[in-house]
Amino acid sequence: MRPRAPLGPTRGTLMHRRLTSVRTPGRVEKPRRRNTPSPQVPDRILNAMTWSRALKEAARSGLTVERAKLTPLLAVRGTAGVAVVIGLCLWRGSPELAVSSAFGAFSSGIVTFQRSMRPRPVLALAVAGALAVSTFFGYLAASHVVAFVLLLTGWTLLAGMAWAIGPVSGLAGTQTVAIMLVTVTLPTSVPGALQHAALIFFGGLVQAALIVAFPVRPWGTQRDALADALAAEADYARRLRHDPVAPFDPAPLMDARLASTVTPRQARRRPVQLHGPRGLAERVRPVLASLADPVVGAPLEGPERDRARDLLGAAATVLDAVAHAVRHARPVRLPPEAMAALEVPATGPMLNGPARRAAYRLISLLADAVELTDEPVQATRPTTEAERGHLLRPSVPRLVPVALRALHREARWSSRIFRHALRVAAVAAAGYLLGTALPFGHGYWAPLTSVMVMRPDFAQTYSRGFARFGGTLVGVSVGGALMALTHPDAYVSAALAVFCVFLMYLLMRTGFSVTSACVAAYVVFLLGIIGEGWQQTVEGRIVLTLIGGLLAMLSYALFPAWETPRLRDRLADWLVTNGRYARAVFDGHARPAERRPRQVREALLDARAARAAWEESAARAEKEPVRHRGLSLRAANAASAALATMGRVTMIGEAHLPGKDAEPSPGAAAFAAALPPALESAARAVRDGAPLDWSGPHAVWERWNAEGGHEGVAVRAAELLLDALDDLAEALSGGPGGAHGAARAAPDGDLS
């Protein structure tokens, strides 16, 4: 049995040291909080959650009001677009037209607040066009119940499939269904339908014009994404000082890459600060891990470790300063202590071997980051030809083939997106028929509630259902009380509706219950423009909202798309992509002259995507009232940690790739060739719950190590990689808490 490499203190000791250590004083640029999964599997993942507990958690999550950074200027600009449309229609048209056209500007404004890297005017115009088409077809079929129900079902099915393209597309599709349900309550002719559709598009056009005329923090989303990535690197460097094998969540780097993908027009106007630091952040991370690692970097104790800690602390300070400069479009300001720590001591270099090379590389990269970020913000630079191959965002027309491929990929019975589309289409049709049959009027409120709360996963659907009803109850109560006490005319009602829009835009990120309350009050005041009685509005809205929310929740319970049974597939996908990344790195050590940088880079991106898919699935499964019989809590946690370690040690091997003039390594070539068959069989074993066998790579490593390969970084990285694979096999073994030890009695909703 091959002895384990001496990795230093245990994980518990390192965690204790990290939590009890005192950080150096000074300003720290922290990454912003995002609704992304943690880099490690949550402690409660795959726990025995019953339906009652799941409903309690969903209600608590939906009714929670979070603290969030407010954007008043953006809220004022979006509200101005709605106010302009309502005011013009009241002045030159009728109250009915004002009510109908307001939804165009309102919905276009909502989409521009989403986290998207597309230009905001393009988003507003694209959504306005979709809303106009939806309105036109809805008006044509509104006078025939059967025709409208068929149109509503088909349109809602397509809108549900839009989630396959992305969350912003899914939200836009939901808005088109909502506007089809709302605006067609005013019967009209074909010319009238065209007029209403034009007014809806005019609302989006107004929002786009205001964005162009009054820009608020241009490139702000891209700046935040890049600054978050740099701040995450800084936090990583700071944690490595006390935990040499600290984990790192690559999600900020993935977001930064997404933000760096630009259209040709954006590439010509992009500030210099957004051009170079992302690539440097990508290269800094493996250097940091290599310097801190106790096997291939500085020893765990002694003067070299002290020097490594100083360098890591200085790197954290520099990266924080660069992140602050990028986020606020300011020059970089560095304390002299950090600059002094990055200089070679007068007594000479204190590090040796790979650690010294990593230190020199780190100092060079940090200097480049400061130099690139400190250039004038007004200077621009087009995207280079090398970047255009993989960082060029397609225009909206060229996005159509990409969208069609995404829809085709999800058009299968096992897809949660496809099941969501079927579910929401059936619920919309049933809710519309039920709401029309009830004597409350405004029967569209029931299907509208269902469509707005339903999402492709269990937790969001149920939490949004509770939030929608609670927010609606508060919103219609407050709005109805004001209407009853003040009896406002059309213009005062319009002013109150606009104020509710401002509150919704301002508080959008605090929680769905808050936005639901603002929207409910907005609808009460908006219908007050045409003289709708507040008593009927309040009573009908509450009852129909409750019905719509119950329909949405019941539909998921009867036709679910649980994520829990897919966890083993996600784990196997992560293992396969990690293996491809490892093979690409060891191929680079084996044949340096033939190394292709893009091969390693693409394999790394695939591994990150697979890890993100696992974490997303794990986060969803945590909230589902089902249990995976073949994967226990302990096995999932241990397997995730092993695969994360596998990616980390592969990254260390990438940081020490030899130059093209280096000698080939037969041992690395043999090890790289032994990985694919072992990984292929291991992936099948993970999916089937069978034992994992790494005897092939073990035998190759033994021969490589016996031939004297221990002097290189590659063989040490291979040893650490095998350690991680052994940990994965142990985690998924049939021992206590392993994969086969989880088949105990499970609650309702159990899955085999």
TrEMBL record:
Which keywords does this Swiss-Prot/TrEMBL entry list? Membrane, Transmembrane, Transmembrane helix
Q: Could you tell me where this protein is found in the cell?
A: Membrane
Q: Where is this protein primarily located? A: membrane
Task: Tell me where the transmembrane regions lie.
Answer: 70-91, 122-140, 146-165, 196-216, 421-445, 465-485, 490-508, 514-530, 542-562
Q: Does the keyword Transport apply?
A: no
Task: Give the membrane topology, semicolon-separated if more than one.
Answer: Multi-pass membrane protein
> Where in this chain does the record put each Integral membrane bound transporter domain?
432-554
Name used for this protein in its record: Integral membrane bound transporter domain-containing protein
Q: Report any Pfam family annotated for this entry.
A: FUSC_2
Q: Does the keyword Transmembrane helix apply?
A: yes
Cite the residue spans of the region called Disordered.
732-752
Q: Where is the composition biased (Low complexity)?
A: 741-752
